[in-house]
Design goal:
Elements: E1 2-6, H1 15-28, E2 33-37, H2 43-47, H3 59-64, H4 70-73, E3 75-78, E4 81-84, H5 93-96, H6 106-112, E5 120-124, H7 131-139, E6 142-148, H8 153-171, E7 176-182, H9 189-201, H10 215-223, H11 227-230, H12 235-248, H13 256-267, E8 276-281, E9 288-292, E10 302-303, E11 305-306, E12 311-316, E13 321-329, E14 332-334, E15 342-344, E16 350-356
Parallel strand pairs: 1-5, 1-6, 2-4, 2-5, 6-7
Antiparallel strand pairs: 3-4, 8-12, 9-10, 9-13, 11-12, 13-14, 13-16, 15-16
Helix pairs in contact: 1-12, 6-7, 8-9
Bound molecules: adenosine-5'-diphosphate and magnesium ion.
């Protein structure tokens, strides 16, 4: 499963247009696609013809209500395309979660424990980098940054790069960046210059497909239809079909080692079935065990076996959910040194965080 955030703190660059029409074009290629509207403006929801009166639960409930999973609120748009809808209620999440220590992991945790029978998850984001966008970036293995042909686009790319660097430093996570140029008319020298500047800033990051400017994309959004249903023979439909094919191709598909790193983040330590693999390097230890919510924090914990080279390992069956844990190394309680996700417990010490995903056979 590829989880892709469509993001740019600049508004009006084509985020929603890309998210909606790429989602639809991928579904047309036979993929199972989930589009999450993560913007309180609800533009992606509206662009798929879904009115707030048509849904009860929305993206906000994913953040706020611990019991709600994706399967409880998704709406089927067409065969192969589901939507998690949003409306203005989503704008309160920032305040609602203000005092929550794990507020930036909400979406990641909810996706990890939901049934996710999807090939691709696209997340449409608001034009700011706040709690909502950080949640999306932490849950994503890739980010797609639409840029438009304006003089502020280069600056927007620089600012977004700084956001990704911050995320890497503070959370140990960096989604793979791709840039897509939208609304560019390459017959103008100006548009070509903007593209050159962006390519100089982020060499090799821009996808080949260009989304040309066309009023039909605007009209399709107004009609509540993706362009491939609104006007299948239009430039817009052709461009998004090309973008979907490029998205699936070798040039774009994420490097395997990068993906593994992200899967570890999404799933916690070693998510391979059937159990959770805890592995740690304590070369001088005589006894290592793991304890946490899943052992009721017993001091005996579950023993790790020495592997002879300083590594210790154990596989534990843990039901889907979110947990905190620690290693006990010769009587010393310590967080998992290889897991960047940590949280401060009520005693002011750090615990490691583990998310065990729902298994759905994929
Ligand atoms: N390639 C394009 N050609 C013409 N209009 C476009 C194109 N892409 C987007 N638009 C229009 O520009 C406006 C802003 O696009 P949108 O996708 O909503 O941007 P964002 O989500 O970044 O704010 C919308 O009215 C949309 O229909
Ligand atoms: Mg938008």
């Amino acid at each position: 499963m590829r989880v892709v955030s469509v993001a740019n703190q600049k508004g009006g660059v084509g985020k929603t247009t890309v998210a909606v029409n790429l989602a639809s074009a991928l579904a047309r290629l036979g993929r199972d696609v989930l589009l999450i509207d993560n913007d309180p403006q609800g533009h992606a929801t509206a662009a798929l013809g879904v009115e707030p009166a048509h849904f009860g639960l929305s993206t906000r409930d994913l953040y706020i209500d611990g019991g709600v999973k994706v399967q409880d609120l998704r709406i089927e748009i067409t065969n192969g395309l589901h939507l998690v809808p949003a409306d203005l209620d989503l704008s309160t999440v920032e305040q609602d979660l203000a005092d929550e220590p794990r507020k930036l992991r909400r979406l990641l945790e909810r996706l990890a424990i939901s049934q996710m029978p999807y090939d691709v998850v696209l997340i449409d984001n608001p034009p700011q980098v706040g709690v909502l966008t950080f949640n999306a970036l932490l849950a994503s293995s890739e980010v797609l940054l639409p840029v438009d042909a304006s003089r502020f686009s280069v600056e927007a790319v620089e600012r977004f790069e700084a956001t990704l660097r911050g995320l890497q430093q503070e959370r140990g996570h960096r989604p793979q960046l791709r840039i897509v140029a939208t609304g560019f008319d390459l017959r103008t020298r100006y548009a070509r210059r903007v593209l050159e500047d962006i390519d100089a800033l982020e060499p090799g990051r821009r996808v080949r497909t260009l989304i040309r400017p066309t009023i039909r994309l605007r009209e399709a959004a107004q009609a509540g239809l993706p362009i491939d249903r609104f006007d299948p023979s239009s430039h817009g439909a052709q461009d998004f079909s090309a973008l979907a094919r490029e998205f699936e191709g070798h040039d774009w598909i994420i490097q395997h080692d990068e993906l593994l790193e992200w899967e570890e983040l999404l799933h916690g330590p070693g998510p391979q079935s059937p159990g959770v693999h805890f592995r740690a390097y304590f070369p001088h230890a005589r006894k290592v065990c793991v304890t946490g919510d899943f052992t009721d924090w017993s001091v005996e914990g579950i023993d790790l076996r020495p592997e002879g080279d300083g590594h210790w390992r154990v596989e534990v069956d843990i039901p889907p959910g979110c947990y905190e844990y620690k290693f006990i190394v010769d009587g010393e309680w310590t967080p998992d040194p290889e897991n960047p996700e940590q949280i401060r417990n009520t005693y002011g010490q750090l615990n490691s965080v583990l998310t065990v995903p729902e298994r759905d056979g994929r």
